[in-house]
Amino acid sequence: MLNSSIYDDLRQAAEVHRQVRKHAQTYIKPGIKLVDLCKRLEAKNRELLEAEGFKRGIAFPTGCSLNHVAAHYTPNYGDNTVLSQNDVMKIDFGSQINGRIIDCAFTVAFNPMFDNLLQTVKAATNAGIKAAGIDARLSEIGEVIQEVMEAGEVEINGKVFKIKCVANLNGHSIEPYRIHAGKMVPITKRQEPGKMEEGEVYAIETFGSTGKGHVSEGGECSHYMKRFNAPNAPLRTPRAKKLLQFINREFSTLAFCRRWLDDGGEDKHLMALKSLCDA
After folding, report:
1. Residue percentage of the chain with pLDDT more than 90
2. Nearest of 108, 116, 117, 114 to residue 83 by alpha carbon
3. Closest CA to 46 of 263, 215, 228
4. What beta strand segments (E) does 146-193 contain?
5. Which is it for the CA torsion 243, 245, 251, 255, positive or negative?
6. What is the pLDDT of residues 184-208, one digit of tens each?
7. The whole model's pTM is what?
8. Which DSSP symbol is given to 223?
9. pLDDT digits over 44-75, tens only?
10. pLDDT category of residue 1 using cuts at 50, 70 and 90
């Protein structure tokens, strides 16, 4: 069972998240560079959280994935991508206090052609939240989400598309300083073992698509995270050891991005980062 101080941390982090989202919606407009968007959002997140090391701060890098990119894209420095009128962008960011993470996202589209897509995904998300609770079976939540999602359709440039769940993306349980804590919440009807238990925290995440309903990895990597309870691994280069010390000091097991390494003075990190990933 969660004690009152944990609820207070979650509520405060959630209120900061709400205010940051409201503020971001005032400047997310066609023509903004995505790197500028992320830096501005992250600065407001830190400001309202009164960021203080691990105690309170950003939970993970700001995602601003466009169109066919479902998640986990944030621009590295040198990426000058600009938001356009016909883009569909998923903004995903997190706030944490004492490791209690609020993981929440919203979708931005300026062309009303996409309204039905956004409304359908929102309805599916709300259905998943309504189905969640103590003793709720994870597989049944996925079934509820899929039923609502795949009842929707959207007309794009004169062609009607059925909206599909992206079957290999899921919601997940969250633990202190651990964004993906082990349990998956599917968004399709499938046999997912387990149920929600008292005291657990979850992110209900839904992804609707006009495509095949399946994603694959691609593009330049921007998100990194030290594995929770990772064993010690031998590191051959002093540069990799130095970078790991920086990561342990600044992020520990919270996710980070290459921009944050650059901002912290670790600007020549690429080979050392690869060494850590390969270790």
Report:
1. 89
2. 108
3. 263
4. 153-156, 159-162, 164-165, 171-174, 184-185
5. positive
6. 999 999 888 899 999 999 999 999 9
7. 0.93
8. E
9. 999 999 999 889 999 999 999 999 999 999 99
10. low
The two tokens of residue 32 are 């903004």
Q: Where are the alpha helices (DSSP H) in the chain?
A: 4-24, 34-49, 115-131, 138-149, 238-250, 258-263, 270-278
Tokens linked to 178: 């651990």
> Cβ-count burial of 185 within 10 angstroms (0-12 exposed, 13-18 middle, 19+ buried)?
buried
What does the pLDDT look like over 75-100, one tens digit per residue? 999 999 999 999 999 999 999 999 99
Angstrom distance (rounded) from CA 60 to CA 63: 9
Q: Which residues of 42-59 are buried (b: 16+ CB within 10 A; e: fewer)?
A: bebbbebbebeeeebbbb
Q: 185, 138 in Cβ contact below 8 A?
A: yes
Q: Which strands sit side by side in the sheet containing 88-97, from one edge to the other? A: 56-66, 88-97, 100-109
Residues 6+ apart with CB under 8 A from 99: 54, 176, 177
